[in-house]
Amino acid sequence: MSEKLKHITCDVAIIGAGPAGLSAATALKKEGIERVIVIDRETEGGGIPRHCGHPPFGILEYKRILTGPLYARRNVKTALSSGVELMLKTTVISLGAEGKLSLLSPDGPIELVAKRVLIATGTRETPRSARMVSGNRPLGICNTGALQSMVYLKNRIPFKQPVIVGSEIVSFSALFTCKKAGIKPVAMLEEKAGTSVMWPIKYVLNIIGVPLFLNTKITNIAGKDRVQSVTVVDKNGKEREIVCDGVLFTGKFIPESSLMRMSHLEIDQNIGMPRVDRYGRCSDPSYYVAGNIVFNPVKVAGKCWKSGQIAAQRIAKDLANQ
Amino acid sequence: MIDEQSTHTLNSDKAGENALLADVDVAIIGGGVVGCAVTRRMALEGASVVLIEKAADILDGASKGNSAILHTGFDAPVGTLEWECVQKGYNEYLEIHESLNLPLLKSGALVAAWTEEEEARFSEILKKGNENNVKDLRLLSSSEALALEPNLSKDIRAAIAIPREYVIDPWSAPLAYLMQALQNGGQALFNAGVIGGEFNGSEWILKTVRGTVRARYVINSAGLYGDIVNKDVLGASDFTIKPRKGQFVVFDKAANKLVRSIILPVPTKRTKGIVLFPTIFGNLMVGPTAEEQDDRDDASVDETILNDLHAQAIKKLPALAGIPVTATYAGIRPATERPEYRITQDKDRNWITLGGIRSTGLTSALGIAQHVHGLLTGQGAEFRKVDNPSVPFVPNLAEHLPRDCDTPGYGEIVCHCEMVTQREIKAVLESEILPAGSLSGLKRRTRVTMGRCQGFYCSARLAELTDGKFAKPIAVGDANE
After folding, report:
1. A130 and B412 in contact by Cβ < 8 A?
2. ipTM, 2 decimals?
3. For B9-64+171-240+338-378, which CATH class?
4. What pTM was computed for the model?
5. Closest-CA residue to B262 (of B192, B160, B173)
6. Which regions in chain B score pLDDT beneath 50?
7. Which residues of chain B does A125 touch, with a Cβ-Cβ cutoff of 8 Å?
């Protein structure tokens, strides 16, 4: 606390070095904005694609098919070579009026004042707890984000034979991750009557050999130290037990709007998303949003990248009109 | 100290079943909050002590899930030992918390009446508070209560303010107690469940799964297993544990600004009822339920009950409707067939049982520890108080006070939701006095993964940092490429 507070000023501060944030930063530099800083709390930039080890990424942006990690690196490289400053391992603690941000870095606190702030903090999956799922709380329960970062960044696995809850795009991304890592899911469960993805689901599931149970809800998780089984119930109320050693809760994305909830910015309480005008501007007009924090349902990386481009144009115009 | 190696290590089994692990004045069975407090008190009084815990870390039973309230004892049964221990424990906590770096959130509490029937019980509560020497209770009208807590539902009819009911850290406090005992010559044995014992007229030879412990006096603070320990070692127990589960719902930190006080219900005969309260970590919680069950370990949660708790919380505090849920969990109280504490002393066999310590245990633990010291000296035990005892430093986890991340040089933030640093995690894993023995122990000591994302962002890094440290790890193997 006795440390000296560092002061920084810039034209645009962007919170989150994922596809939307980096895309906006690069575009802002191209628009001739002088000082653009992207802040990310992780040790590396790139965002969620860093641990999506599969294609297709980058078709819209780079006219080629990349894996997530390659795409993430490319976004970082492009931003840096455009003159964007990237502040890693730096956490935004609070959002203040008129672009005043309190940051925390391993070297101490920083006060950053930006003419405009773009919030591109993305989204995360709803954990087991917030889904109010019954049962014990043993090891082996996680979201896709945790699974993929464990597999792709640390080369480790949290379970060997999990059930997958959900059948959104991300659930299939998780399925690929499992296959790659040697994890053998025993079932995919979907509460609704159908999956929410467009492509030939059955085909993919058949290839990988994972049964899909529609109209099926998880009603109990059993296991003392590690997951031992789950109980599921179908639409006729028929219960059955599935033996497994993990539960992967996929999707049900919620905007990563915690920072905004704790701030002066207005949140639409019903959807947990920031209240924005038609320009993507928040209740405090020095704040903008882009990417998955405002997409419902959640969109793929390319759409977030595009959203960053649009936000950059608006911010550049706004600054020019000042 | 007989077996230096086994004292502070967690999994050392080299001793074998007959090895003498400790030879002490006082052995304490059970590392819950009560056991930790008694170990500390007796160590400070100059006794040689050993805490014997069957799990890999402290607080693995009833003490891992409580309401984290420092009670004044305003509603305790008048004139009982429970009331006496609550008041003594409350006062001692206030005396020692600053030196041990333990937080105190001066929240105050409101007993809220939502119905005419509840309001009708107020005179009784006020009278009891007075008899219990809690003289600062104040009756508030509906508008006075709303002035104090404007986000509460307008349906509130009246309230009683209890200004000195506070919120504390339920895990750092017992940790500090045990650390102080260890720093002043005490020992702790983990993974050492007690399976039997014999008293030879002057001392006990306790059998654990790891070896034996010789002790002049034994304190049974085995919580949910208190009656079983008495049966296994003494041959009988004069009480039976009736496990009582309490489920909780934890709201996101955004809810914390909605209410300042602990919102207590009008208590019924069986339970204090469902409480809405701020936590020391900056969340807002609702719970606990009171569900009788046979199983002593089954801390499972139930969707219907969680949804009901959630709805009840929103009814009392409507603005909670838009706030996400961070966590759900359940704790189990070691209730018995009777409501009072089951504290007994067998003077012939130098054995004290601390049974049936339920929700007030977090507050009363320090008071119970004083009481135990009194019982032992009362039967002729003599100890020489430690001069200038060593005081441990327990890192702060409270949201309203500086955390480890506020001091530069922390390396990296591992858990972003709870701002847990790499330095903090390393310190707990590598502690020379009392390293974390399990993943849940590490969580209780750092808050890692306990925030809103529940491990979405940090599980991978945590799996890496804890690899090879615990018997029950996060990762079960390598990913085959």
Report:
1. no
2. 0.94
3. alpha beta
4. 0.94
5. B160
6. 1-15
7. 456
